[in-house]
Amino acid sequence: VGGNSMSGSNSISKYPWGAHYVPLPGPEAHYVREFFEEIGIIQGYQKGLPIFNEYYLCSEAQERLFFQGEWQEGLVPQHGIQQDDKRQYDEFFTFIESLKKKKGVDKKYVFSIPLDSSSQDPEYLKLDLISMSEFMREKGWNSSYLNWYVNYCCRDDYGSPHNKVSAWAGLHYFASRAGVGANADAQS
């Protein structure tokens, strides 16, 4: 038993001891892959990609949002919004996809899991000096729906709103999940 089944507390809040899931490990997650091989989660490789024991895979949560009187798939409303909101969604998610492939001057991926495999490029480390909400404002991403979603994600992973989470950490949340498998969807 693991994940959120055990918890602790301090003078600030209660907290889980561990994650309730692990994203597919990317190529930099050597120890995770080694551990997954040892316990039978990775059963081999095909064309360099891990073959996962499907018993341990879990699909991305299929969430629904009740918005403007109707149910919509996902957490980002698609119906009943302005064209500018859609444009901002496209810009944001395209930007995140580009970050997943981006490497710093040290030839490491800018955002990686494990965290210490991430680039130490000063150009990206300076994102730790501003909040995620400030970064979004600078990019012109002022859609209340997009900001609600990013805030939700920061609160879920870091326990703090996006105006208290650094832009580096906020972007890491989205751009570090780049693992792949021979038999698994990237979001598994």
Number of helices: 6
End-to-end span in angstroms?
A: 20 Å
- Gyration radius over CA: 18 Å
**Outline type:** globular
Structural class per helix/strand content? Answer: alpha+beta
Bin the helical content: 25-40%
Q: What's the number of extended β-strand segments?
A: 6
Order of helices and strands: EEHEEEEHHHHH
Strand content: 5-15%
Strand order of the largest sheet: 1-2
- Largest β sheet strand count, sense and barrel closure: 2 strands, antiparallel
Written description of the protein model:
There is one protein chain. With 188 residues, the chain is an alpha+beta fold. It is 34% helix and 12% strand. It has six helices and six strands. It has helices at residues 30-38, 83-101, 122-125, 132-139, 144-158, 167-175; strands at residues 7-9, 14-16, 42-46, 49-52, 64-67, 70-73. The strands form three sheets. Strands 1-2 form a two-stranded antiparallel ribbon. Helix 4 (132-139) crosses helix 6. The longest helix is centred in the middle third of the chain and has 19 residues, at 83-101. The chain is globular, with a radius of gyration of 18 Å. The two termini are 20 Å apart.
In short:
This protein has 188 residues and is an alpha+beta fold.
Write the layout of secondary structure elements.
Blueprint: E1 7-9, E2 14-16, H1 30-38, E3 42-46, E4 49-52, E5 64-67, E6 70-73, H2 83-101, H3 122-125, H4 132-139, H5 144-158, H6 167-175
Antiparallel strand pairs: 1-2, 3-4, 5-6
